[in-house]
Amino acid sequence: MRKIYLLTFFFAALACQKKDNAEKTTFVKDEHSYSKPNQAVVKHLDLDIKVDFDTQSISGKASWQIDNVSKGNEIIFDENTLNITKVTLGDDEKETKFELGAEVKFHGKPLHITIEPNTTKVNIYYNTTKEAIALQWLTPQQTADKKKPFLFSQGESIWSRTWIPCQDSPGIRFTYAAKVTVPKDLMAVMSAVNPQQKNDTGIYTFKQDKAIPSYLMAIAVGDIKFKAIDDRTGVYAEPSLLDKSAWEFAELGKMVVAAEKLFGPYRWGRYDVLVLPPSFPYGGMENPNLTFLTPGVIAGDRSLTSLLAHELGHSWSGNLVTNATWDDIWLNEGFTTYVEHRIGEAIFGEKEAKMQGVLSRKVLNDNIAEFGNTNPDTRLKVNTTGKNPDDAINEIPYVKGYDFLKVIEQAVGRKKFDTFITNYFDAHAFQSITTEDFVNYLNENLIKNDKALADKIKVEDWIYKPGVPSNITAVFSEDFNAIDSIQKNWRKTGVKGLSQKIKSTNEKQHFIDYLPEDITVKEMTEIDAEFNFTKGGNFVIKRQWFVPAIRHHYTVAYPAIEQFMIATSRTGSLATLYKEMVKTPEGKVWARQIFNKAKSGYHLTTVQDIEGLLK
């Protein structure tokens, strides 16, 4: 879905895959990191930084404990747009040489640091610049309460190197501790154990004793308050959103319990969420201990909390067991989508799960149609060499990965598959693995040379071939079937009273998805009068409704569409609407006008994507 940019040259790096019994680390190639962990690899970070809203910069020292595997004279870090001022070695801070290599678009530069064979600690003094893609600095006007500034980071996929010099590969894991100094009237939180109230010093300390990859390093600073949901879950938000958020996520503790019953213990201690300002570019980001969420999920009726189930699911698939390279992203997102659906079924029931299954299948079919059935980007194991790895972050690894796991579940039975997945998470806990590691584990622990079972699952077809294999499971929903019957007749019977039959967000979404291709403006007006989609819908309903509104020139909705597109920075949802606009000459003009008004509030990654669409 994203525009592909070619690199001027390819570069090799290595990422941590797994440990054998002798604690020796092996590595796989990661095209998107300059680091060479075969030679020297990071193990722990002590971060001491100051957040300055006046200069919109972070400055300080990143002290890395390293393993100089080869006993050589160099370690290589990734950096992008950072200002490196000094590098020292050890606790005695002996100054050493450093050199920046040639820049590659999106990937920044390699930071070559001279070390000694016995070096165990490298201290890097630096500050960020305004070009740091990972950091979004917001003025008070861009926040919910409009009183104080706000900062948040977004590291996935290769943007952590724009705010911390690091070995920025999902295959390289490390623990960290941090000291963060912020203005005294603000509070800092990170992807770690967090404070629950503001202090009067502006100095906050953090500890993450679980080894994580760099893309899960996260920070937020703002006028933030905390409210507990139960003894291990809670919500951080700006004061005006705190009570609403806590009410919306009242099921959060139950979700954690449901996930544990399905797939084993939650291993991160607390699970909290942070509701961010609207410029956050995604629905959610699974930062350990503290999921970052879009405010768009605050619907007022708990109808969009399935997003929470997805981000919670990452605590097992993604954070606990991580894709070793971005070519393997389906291991994060496909597994998590499966876990999300299972948590949803446990909390909200089988009817909900069936509806989600049908909606997910439509997303898969639409994406396959957009990409083309033979497009290699529709494989689960993709090739991001020479590309911005963000290009791999589209809907296909989510929904095709989910459907692949459903095929396996159907082939062996749910009980047996649940045991397999739980054992898989346990066997690879706090490790980064490749697709091939998973395939080997699947063959050794589930298929076990059973040719009939292998033929039934078709692993090669799902993972390494484009399109959708023939053995995909059937999906259906009795509730959606009833709506399909309504779709066939409402033109004859009229729309009055339909809102009493089509009530839930899922049902409304399905109804909108299958409106007639030749629907008229008069009919859209009548439907809007019945359901109040334009003004009263939640985030998801508005996004779905605005697509036919653009397509069929339902101009009554245009002001609401423009307001919606200015008020959010969720890249996927915006891309859906911009794509529809640019199909016509007048739509292109309108899209450019909206973008010019909105881009100052968009996240930088969102700006990149939308600019690509508009070109």
Mean pLDDT over the residues: 94
Number of E-state strands = 23
Q: What is the CA-based Rg, rounded?
A: 24 Å
User: What's the N-to-C terminus distance?
Assistant: 14 Å
Low-pLDDT runs of 5+ residues are 1-23
The largest beta-sheet arranges its strands as: 7-6-10-4-3-13-15
By helix and strand content, what is the structural category? alpha+beta
Proportion of β residues? Answer: 15-25%
Which percent range fits the helix content?
A: 25-40%
Overall 3D form:
globular
- Major sheet attributes: 7 strands, mixed
How many distinct helices?
Answer: 19
Structure description:
The chain is built from 19 helices and 23 strands. It is globular. Strand 3 (41-52) and strand 4 (57-67) form a beta hairpin. Strands 7-6-10-4-3-13-15 form a seven-stranded mixed β-sheet, with no helix packed on it. The chain has a five-stranded mixed β-sheet with strand order 17-18-19-21-20. Strands 11-12-16-14 form a four-stranded antiparallel β-sheet, with no helix packed on it. The chain is an alpha+beta fold. Helix content is 37%, strand content 21%.
